[in-house]
Every structure is written in C-alpha cells, then in structure tokens.
C-alpha cells in the first residue's frame, strides 16, 4: 500500500519534471544568453564583437583581452583588496543586521517602534547622493586611505534592508522555541546562538548580496583611497577601460569574466543554505 | 547544514585577519623612501596609461631623484573625486582640468604658478607661438599658471571620414569626396544602392548627436549655440534650423545608420566597413588605431558645405591649457623640472606622443613631427584659412568676466538641453524651431538676469561683454581686435 | 508599518506529540518580551553595532543633506551661501522634474508588478522537492545580477540595434518587420525596454528573496494540509502566501524603492532620450547637479530629499490603502 503510493508519487514527480525541465531550460537559456554574450565578448576582438552580432562564437580565440585586463585592471595587485573588502564588509553587515534584527523582533523596549519606523523610512534615501557627508565622517575619524575606512564605509550605508529581513525572519520563529530554550535554562546569548542557525536562508541572502555589491563597488574604494591607490579594488581598476575618447569593451568583458568566478562561487556555496531552517529545528 | 562551531570559527578568523590587515594598511607604503621625490599626476586619459608609464620611466632615468606616478581616472569619476581630493588635502602635484577657466581655479585656490618663482623664463615661452600666454587665460597678475598643451588649430571636431572599402564598392572615389550637401546625398544614394553598408554612421544618442552636428553646422554658422556677434544663445536661427532640417532629410531618406546609437557604436560600425561616412574629430585616428583599424583604410575630408556655399567655420577657443600645478604640491621645483622636460619640443615626451598619434601639441612643429597619414590629412584641412577660426573671448574684452558666474550658470541648467531638443526633433520629425526655442530662451534669460545682478553688485559686466558686432564669422578674432 | 503577521487560515492540525521540540509550529506569536536585569545590557550590546553605523552612515549624512539643501554649494569649500528654500522652489517649478517623477513612478510600478509575481513563481518552482537540477537553474536565473550595469547596457544596445542586432534579425526572419525597428526612438517603447532589461537583471535577486522567504514555512504545515487533501493550489494560497506575508511586504517595498532609484540603465540605454522623454529622477539630479562643473551639490541634495519624500508618501499611502482594504474585507467577512 505504502509502496504503491510512493511509486505513484515518483511517477508523478517524473511527469512534473518532464513538463518543467524543458520550459525551464528554454527560458533559462534566453535568460542567461546576454550573460554568455558578455563572456564570449571577452574572447573577441573589438571588431569581432561588433560584427558577430548575436553570435556567441568568438571570431577568434583571443586571449589578449585577458592579458590586458590582468595588467590594466591590476588584478594581481587589487585582487587581495577586493576579497578583503567584500569578506570583511559582508561580515560586519551580517553581524550588525542579525543582532539588531533579533532584538527588534524579539524584545520590547522604549523606542523600538521609532527605530523600526526610522529604518523603514531611510530605505527611501538614495545612498548615492550622500557620499560627501560620509567622506567627511571617515576623514574626521582619521580613516582616509586605510582599508578599515573603506570597509567601514562599505558596510555602513546599506544595512537597513538586511535588518528588516532578519526582523521578518525572527518574528516568524514560533514563540515555543524560545520558551523551550528558556526551559532548558538558556540565557539571552545562548538563546540567540540556538536560534541564529535557523536563519540560514536570511544569512545566505545577506552574504550573497552584500558580497556582490561590495565586489562591484567602485565609488567608495575610489574616493576613500585617493592618497593611496594601491588600496583600491578591482572595480576601480576596471574603470581604466573607459578612456576619454573610447571604451575598451572587450578588455572590460575579460576583466568581468575573471571577476565573475568568485561571485558565482559565493552564490553556489551559500545557495545550499536555502534549506528549511525551521523544519530542521523542530525535527532534531 | 554547516556546523555552527565551524561557522563561528570561520567568522572569527576572517574578522581577525581583516582587522589585522586593515590596521596594517595605514603604515605600509608611506613614501617612496630615501631622498626620491614622487610627483603625482592625475588625468582621465585611460588610453595613454602605457604612454605615461613609459615617459615616467624615461624621466626617472634622466632625473633619478624624481619618480612619476601618473594616474588615470575615468572622466565622470575624476570630476567627482578631484574636488574631494583638494578638500581633504590629498590633491596630486599636477592635474588635468579642462572644465573651468583660470579664474575659477585660482578662486578655489587649486593652482599655483608653473614656476616656483612665479615668472617663467623667456626660453620657456619661446616654445610656443606668440600670443599663447594671455592675461586671464593662463596668466594672472603677471604670473603664469598654465601652458597651452594641445594646439587648437587642428584639434577639434568637424572632420569627415570616408571608408575606402565602402567607397570602392559603391564605385565612388575617396579622393574626390562629396563637397556639398547635394554631393553628400548623391554619394549616400549610391552607397545605399550599390553596397550593403549604411551611408553615414551618425550617433544620435544624447550628446553624441554633436558628431554629425558639428560636421555640418561648421560650414554654415560659427557659433556653438552662442552667437558672439549678436550676444545671443541660439538654436533656432535660420542657419541652425536649415542645417538640422538637412539632417532630418538625410534621416528620412535612410542615409543615417538606423538606431539611436552612441559614438562607440558608430565608430565601430565605420571601422567594420558597415558605413561609408562618419563625422568626428581629431582624436579618431588614435582611437581607431587602438581598435586595430589603421589609417590606410580611410581618408579624411573637409566638412561638406551647403550648396549655396560656406558661411561659417569651426570655432577655436583658448581651452588648450590642460595641465595645472596643484596648490597642494610639496615639490614645486621638481614639478617645474618635469614641466620643462615634457614641453621640450624635441624631447622624449613629444616623440612618444606623436608616435602614438594622440594628437597635435601646441609647442611642437607639427608639420615636422606628424607622420600619421590621417593626422596629416587633418592638418592640411584644418590649417586652411577659414576652416577653423578663433572665437572672440568675452573675458579678454571685460576682465571682470573672470569673476562672473552668469554664463556658467546659464549653461549649467539642463547642460544637454540643445542635444536633447535635437534628439526629440529627430525622432518626432518636428522642426527644430518648435522644440529648441525653450532652451535657447531659458539660457538667454539666465545670462541676462545673472549679468544684471552681478552688475548691480559692482562687477563691470554686461551683455556688451558678450557682443562682438564687428566680428566676421569666417575670420579669426585676433587679440588686437579687443582694443576697439 | 508593523511586522504583525496575518493569521494564516488555520488548517486543522492533528494534535500529535505535544513535546515542545516536536510540536508543530503554530501561528507565530508576536508578543515581544520585555527585558529585565542583565538582559538590558545584552540588548544594548546587540543594538550597538547597527546603531553606531546607522547614525554615522545614514542619519548623519541625512541631516547633512538636509542642511546642504538650503545652500548654494558646490560640494567644496565653505558652505556659506544660504539660499533658503530656493533650491526647492527651482525644482518644483521645473516641468522636467515632474516628467521625471512620472517616468520614475511608471517605471517603478511596472517593474514591481511584473518582477514580484514572476520571481515568486520561479522561486516556488525552484524549491520543489521533485525538481531536478535546482542548483543549475537557480544559477542561470541569478547570473545576470553579477554583470555591472554598464556592461548590461552595452549588451542590450548591441542586441536591440536596428541595423545588426539580434532582436531585429529575429523579427525580420519572422516577417514581422521589414525595416529595422528602433525601440529607443519612442518614449513608450524605450520605457518598456528599460523596464524589461531592469527586470531581467534584477530578477535573480528577488527570486533569492522569495526562496529565502519560502524556507520560513515549516514543512509540517504542508504535510498536514496534504493529509487533509489540499491540492497544490490550495496549499499555495492558503498556506504559503499567508505565511510569507511579513517578508513579502518587505520585499515588495524594497522592489518599489530600488526601482525608484534607477539610474545606470537609463544612462547606458537611453541617456534620457528621445529628447528628455525617459528622464528619471536620479538622472534629472545627475544632469542638473553634476552634469557640469562646478557641481550644484545643494540643489542635488534638495532634489534627492524632495523625491524621497514624494516616494515615501506614495508608498505609505499605498500601504495604508491596502491595509484599509484588508480591514474592510475582514469586516465583511469576504
């Protein structure tokens, strides 16, 4: 009896796959096509990129672009900075958002509602237009031309959203779990440490997006390291493909192709965090 | 599921490592060490990065105690970062700036005289043609702050480039290029009928509209949206509406390559032999060379005139002072040494600059130095009398204009307004007079009001400073003409 | 705005094992605890990192921006040219600003109503247990997100170009057009392209948000519903959607707000054209404040604030309307 339903379910799954996979594959290919075009442009000559139109096949297998990207965008020199900035700012972002989100979701304290409303309200502020005051702040902290200054500025501005996501998550955690923890004698900190791993999906979201946005960020590293260009990152280096009279698009594409790898790796690794956090917890 | 302890360990390690490194970041690499001076130079010519490395190395070979650190930042970012650099005392020793005039730069206290003593020796000024150093342009109170870098006789937009392959396929001869508007239409008709190529690779996206505009308007009217003869902003004067109507006619006939393209696209279209004609400027040979399209594949020709003949010219401005010594430099002597070195007409800098065909310099005998065939053709065309003429300069008529902001403010509001009006007219098919009137009027009002206010506060400025009734559109307005 | 989750329609959950660890999670209870004693210190410790950075990098810049907006200031040198409300006056009187506001709202609304449902759909599909190759498909839909905007703009100008672009080649092969069609020559087709390209690029981000949100729904609820004989559709509308509503509100808000700040794509795809017909607010600010030197930093500050306020008012009004409608629905028992 049980065996037949399982078999029935399996054949149901096969049928669903047969319908879904072709559709996903077609849509996915259309979706990913411009991305592949960028990668193929990295192998093309400037003229080849223009004349090949929609084709993904390079006119010739040209590795000059990669050589140029490596040298001009300063991959050898800036790779370390880029990894450091992305990792550190992601870490800061994660810690501060998780802590704050947890407290906002779980506890009542004076000013809670005000703080929450302010966070929502400041979502509307265009961050791009506030670089001058940020610059003044970093300068007064004496952190201009330091890696710490860049990391601080990168992780300072964008946190509101992540806090909201953590609030949303922690407030959907059933109260029973907290009660259970309390019955086991867990204090404030212990309870947080028990609950936090359940937030893996949100952690994954924060890591993926903060990492990518820090990796591609060029405004902050450029402005905050004016006095010491060796502290800049790859995205600033990539600006060197845009000249006064022309843009070296194939070199740009090559630089990006190299740059894609770390971001895709982060994504592939952290997307395994998208498992049912709560379900896992209750089944332990 | 990642064990929690491992996650915590990873986090802690990363945090420690990043803090350590971040802390070290400040102390490392404070200076080049020893007695060597490092001169920092900034510009936005990414194309010239390798050239700058090369000349930096050569200079250090000749002057072992001075190192050159030449940095290029993309133009839009450069404009944002340089002010911040000055504000936070980290400005470079020399910087490239072609956006503001001398008086604004001294007002903002960004620059100091070229030479530590303020006055430059005669054997330095002799490198330039007479009349290159003018009070208000690159001199103030007798001190010299700037030097003309690129020359302004050939350097500019308004040349016509013809693709040899397309012309040959169409049965046309690049050596007898179209000379009039009718010629142009006929050539286009032939290219369209005999080849698969487009006729004119004309970018029309935003400000890139200027390529074809300057290519055609130069033969009709000398003002670039401001008529110095009458002192009026204009976009809807007969000369301009007539020229724009011609562009619309070309567009309707299918002679402009389809699409709202930008300049990069159009240049590649031409270089890929997909278009026969392109209007653009002096920088194009080096751009194309860097993309593998060499100058034996095209020729340069003069703009085309209306059938009734030429009534205007391209305008030359005193905008060729481009490198300025920063007020924040700690090495004015070394900087002066370098400036003398880079402006040596027979020096290494000049030789390498011309080798890459980056352009034509103001302190060089271009007839002797230019070897690139396309640049030579450009020089022959631009050097003809009446092709490019010196525009009148209000500042030289009224010195107080140096302190006036009225004109700058008038053009700062909707800076791309003229091009946007053209874009709208081109896509909608409306005549330019109906879409362009608003922006010209807005600028004129802003200028007149601004000058009035400034005059009321004591500046000796008026619309008179912007009006040169004696000027002839196809003749140079020479410096002696300001005295009348 | 509150985080109060709506009551999911209660499915009858059989009372099985009541031991705390195994208990089926009930509807989250949002009564927040009050802290006592030593926990107060922990509360402060937890809030401190965020608060410090928030004060430094959001609140102080915001106050500074408000201050700058009353001055004619180029971003450098002393801030001494007080102009009162004249920056605001100039902006409010500029028809181009209002055109930009309209375009921005049209853009934000269109992208949001398209991208949210389809990314939710993708997220639901890509979290099905039976589906093969989830990781592969997720990566595919995610990929456009890591392309910088400048490059994305370039790719699409090439693909959409009427003379040799892929789109026109296909249309021509199908016999739909005989001449190249320039999508950027018309305000509405240009706006539609902006919307579509922006959705293409940002899609992965919202898909990930939804996937994360879907993980909050406990498996047991579905299992219980399945025992009750609920179909997939019923599960979706009765369990999934109500359960993810608190996060959905945040995601929707974010979708709107992010879309309102669209800038890079406009620069690379249309440059505001044809004419000024696809100007959006951030592009308007950029052009008028940073399009020529010296910068009008005070003006830019005023324009940015003004638009933030407009956007805030509109979004809150919409939020209020939705909540009111829900209250009415509840009252009438619909």
Q: What is the strand and helix layout of this fold?
A:
The complex is a heterotrimer of chains A (284), B (484) and C (334).
Chain A: H1 2-41, H2 46-51, H3 64-72, H4 75-106, E1 107-108, H5 112-122, H6 131-140, H7 147-156, H8 159-170, H9 175-183, H10 188-195, H11 200-216, H12 219-224, H13 234-238, H14 249-270, H15 277-283
Helix pairs in contact in A: 1-14, 3-14, 4-7, 4-8, 4-11, 5-8, 9-10, 11-14
Chain B: H1 4-27, E1 37-43, H2 49-62, E2 66-72, H3 75-87, E3 94-96, H4 102-107, H5 122-125, E4 139-140, E5 143-144, E6 159-163, H6 164-169, H7 181-194, E7 198-200, H8 210-217, E8 226-227, E9 232-233, H9 238-252, H10 263-271, E10 275-280, H11 284-290, E11 298-301, E12 314-316, E13 323-325, H12 332-342, H13 348-355, H14 366-369, H15 373-382, E14 388-390, H16 394-397, H17 406-412, H18 417-428, H19 432-456
Parallel strand pairs in B: 1-2, 1-3, 7-10, 12-14
Antiparallel strand pairs in B: 3-13, 4-5, 6-10, 6-11, 8-9
Chain C: E1 33-34, H1 38-68, H2 86-92, H3 95-125, H4 134-142, H5 149-160, H6 166-173, H7 187-214, H8 219-227, H9 232-243, H10 245-260, H11 264-269, H12 281-290, H13 297-332
Question: Would you write up a description of this structure?
Answer:
The complex is a heterotrimer of chains A (284), B (484) and C (334). Chain A is mainly alpha-helical and 284 residues long. Chain A contains 15 helices and one strand; from the N terminus they run ααααβααααααααααα. Chain A has helices at residues 2-41, 46-51, 64-72, 75-106, 112-122, 131-140, 147-156, 159-170, 175-183, 188-195, 200-216, 219-224, 234-238, 249-270, 277-283; one strand at 107-108. In chain A, helix 4 packs antiparallel against helix 11. The longest helix of chain A is centred in the N-terminal third of the chain and has 40 residues, at 2-41. The two termini of chain A are 28 Å apart. Mean pLDDT of chain A is 85; it is low at 278-284. Chain B has 484 residues and is α/β, with parallel strands linked by helices. In chain B, the strands form five sheets. Chain B has a four-stranded mixed sheet with strand order 2-1-3-13. A four-stranded mixed sheet of chain B has the order 7-10-6-11. The model of chain B is unreliable at 1-5 and 10-33 (pLDDT under 50). Chain C has 334 residues and is mainly alpha-helical. In chain C, helix 3 (95-125) crosses helix 12. Mean pLDDT of chain C is 83; it is low at 1-29. At the A-C interface, helix 1, helix 4, strand 1, helix 5 and helix 6 of A face strand 1, helix 1, helix 4, helix 5 and helix 7 of C.
């Amino acid at each position: 009896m049980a065996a037949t339903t399982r078999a029935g379910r399996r054949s149901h799954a096969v049928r669903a796959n047969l319908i879904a996979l072709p559709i996903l594959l077609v849509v996915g290919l259309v979706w990913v096509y411009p991305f592949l075009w960028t990668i193929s442009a990295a192998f093309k000559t400037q003229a080849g990129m223009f004349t090949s139109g929609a084709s993904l096949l390079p006119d010739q297998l040209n590795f000059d672009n990669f050589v140029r990207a490596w040298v001009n965008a300063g991959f050898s020199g800036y790779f370390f900075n880029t990894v450091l900035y992305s990792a550190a700012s992601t870490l800061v972002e994660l810690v501060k958002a998780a802590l704050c989100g947890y407290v906002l979701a779980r506890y009542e304290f004076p000013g809670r509602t005000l703080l929450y409303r302010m966070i929502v309200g400041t979502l509307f502020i265009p961050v791009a237009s506030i670089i001058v005051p940020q610059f003044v702040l970093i300068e007064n902290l004496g952190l201009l031309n330091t890696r710490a200054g860049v990391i601080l500025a990168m992780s300072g501005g964008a946190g509101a959203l992540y806090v909201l996501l953590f609030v949303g998550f922690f407030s959907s955690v059933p109260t029973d779990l907290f009660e259970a923890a309390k019955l086991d004698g867990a204090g404030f900190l212990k309870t947080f440490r028990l609950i936090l791993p359940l937030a893996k999906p949100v952690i994954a979201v924060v890591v993926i997006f903060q990492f990518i946005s820090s990796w591609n960020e060029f405004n902050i590293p450029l402005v905050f390291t004016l006095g010491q260009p060796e502290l800049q990152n790859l995205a600033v280096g990539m600006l060197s493909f845009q000249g006064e009279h022309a843009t070296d698009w194939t070199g740009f594409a090559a630089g990006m192709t190299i740059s894609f790898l770390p971001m895709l790796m982060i994504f592939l690794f952290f997307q395994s965090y998208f498992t049912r956090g709560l379900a896992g917890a209750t089944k332990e | 599921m990642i064990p929690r302890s491992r996650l915590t360990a990873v986090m802690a390690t990363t945090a420690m490592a990043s803090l350590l490194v971040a802390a070290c970041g400040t102390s490392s690499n404070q200076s080049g060490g020893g007695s060597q001076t490092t001169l920092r130079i900034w510009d936005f010519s990414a194309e010239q990065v390798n050239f700058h490395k090369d000349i930096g190395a050569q200079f250090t070979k000749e002057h072992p105690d001075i190192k050159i650190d030449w940095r290029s930042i993309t133009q839009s970012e450069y404009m944002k970062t340089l002010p911040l650099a000055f504000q936070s005392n980290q400005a470079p020793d020399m910087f490239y700036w072609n956006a503001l005039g001398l008086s604004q730069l001294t007002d903002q206290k960004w620059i100091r005289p070229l030479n530590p003593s303020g006055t430059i020796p005669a054997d330095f000024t002799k490198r330039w043609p007479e009349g290159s150093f003018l009070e208000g342009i690159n001199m103030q109170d007798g001190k010299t702050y700037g030097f003309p870098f690129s020359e302004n006789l050939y350097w500019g937009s308004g040349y016509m480039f013809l693709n040899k392959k397309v012309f040959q396929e169409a049965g046309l001869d690049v050596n007898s290029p179209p000379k009039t508007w009718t010629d142009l239409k006929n050539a286009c008709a032939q290219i369209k009928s005999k080849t698969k190529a487009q006729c004119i690779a004309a970018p029309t996206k935003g400000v890139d509209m200027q390529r074809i505009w300057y290519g055609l308007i130069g033969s009709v009217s000398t003002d670039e949206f401001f008529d110095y003869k009458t002192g009026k902003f204009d976009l809807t004067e007969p000369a301009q509406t007539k020229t724009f109507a011609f562009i619309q006619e070309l567009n309707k006939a299918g002679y402009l390559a389809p699409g709202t393209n930008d300049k990069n696209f159009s240049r590649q279209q031409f270089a890929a032999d997909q278009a026969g004609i392109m209007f653009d400027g002096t920088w194009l040979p080096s751009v194309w060379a860097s993309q593998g399209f060499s100058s034996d594949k095209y020729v340069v020709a003069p703009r085309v005139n209306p059938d009734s003949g030429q009534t205007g010219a391209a305008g030359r401005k005193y905008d060729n002072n481009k490198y300025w010594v920063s007020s924040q430099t700690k090495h004015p002597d070394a900087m002066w040494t370098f400036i003398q070195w880079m402006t040596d007409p027979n020096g290494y800098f000049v030789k390498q600059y011309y080798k890459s065909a980056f352009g034509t310099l103001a302190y060089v005998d271009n007839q002797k130095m230019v070897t690139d065939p396309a640049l030579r053709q450009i020089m022959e065309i631009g050097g003809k009398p009446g092709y490019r003429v010196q525009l009148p300069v209000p500042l030289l008529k009224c010195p107080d204009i140096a302190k006036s902001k009225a004109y700058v403010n008038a053009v700062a509001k909707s800076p791309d307004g003229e091009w946007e009006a053209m874009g709208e007219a081109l896509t909608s098919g409306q005549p330019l007079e109906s879409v362009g009137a608003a922006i010209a009027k807005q600028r004129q009002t802003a200028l007149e009001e601004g000058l009035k206010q400034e005059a009321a506060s004591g500046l000796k400025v008026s619309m008179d400073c912007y009006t040169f009734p004696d000027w002839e559109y196809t003749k140079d307005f020479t410096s002696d003409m300001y005295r009348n | 705005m509150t985080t109060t989750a709506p009551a999911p329609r209660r499915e009858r959950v059989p009372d099985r094992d009541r031991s705390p660890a195994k208990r089926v999670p009930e509807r989250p209870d949002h009564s927040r605890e009050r802290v006592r004693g030593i926990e107060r210190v922990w509360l402060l410790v937890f809030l401190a990192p965020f608060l410090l950075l928030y004060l430094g990098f959001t609140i102080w810049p915001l106050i500074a921006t408000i201050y700058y907006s009353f001055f004619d200031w180029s971003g450098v040198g002393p801030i001494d040219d007080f102009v009162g409300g004249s920056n605001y006056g100039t902006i409010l009187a500029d028809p181009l600003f209002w055109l930009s506001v309209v375009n921005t709202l049209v853009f934000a609304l269109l992208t949001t109503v398209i991208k949210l449902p389809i990314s939710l759909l993708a997220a639901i599909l890509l979290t099905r247990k039976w589906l093969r190759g989830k990781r592969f498909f997720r990566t595919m839909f995610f990929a456009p997100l890591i392309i910088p905007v400048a490059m994305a703009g370039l790719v699409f100008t090439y693909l959409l170009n009427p003379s040799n672009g892929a789109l026109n080649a296909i249309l021509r092969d199908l016999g739909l057009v005989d001449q190249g069609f320039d999508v950027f020559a018309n305000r509405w087709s240009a706006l539609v392209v902006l919307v579509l390209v922006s959705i293409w690029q940002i899609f992965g981000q919202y898909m990930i948000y939804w996937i994360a949100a879907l993980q909050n729904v406990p498996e047991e609820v579905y299992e219980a519903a399945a025992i009750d004989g609920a179909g997939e559709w019923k599960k979706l509308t009765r369990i999934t959607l109500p359960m993810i509503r608190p996060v959905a509100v945040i995601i929707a808000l974010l979708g709107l707000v992010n879309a309102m700040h669209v800038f890079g794509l406009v620069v690379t795809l249309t440059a505001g054209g044809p004419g000024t017909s696809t100007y959006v607010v951030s592009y308007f600010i950029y052009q008028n404040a940073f399009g020529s030197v010296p910068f009008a930093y005070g003006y830019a500050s005023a324009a940015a604030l003004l638009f933030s306020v407009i956007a805030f008012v509109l979004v809150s009004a919409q939020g209020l309307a939705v909540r009111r409608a829900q209250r009415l629905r509840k009252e009438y028992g619909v």
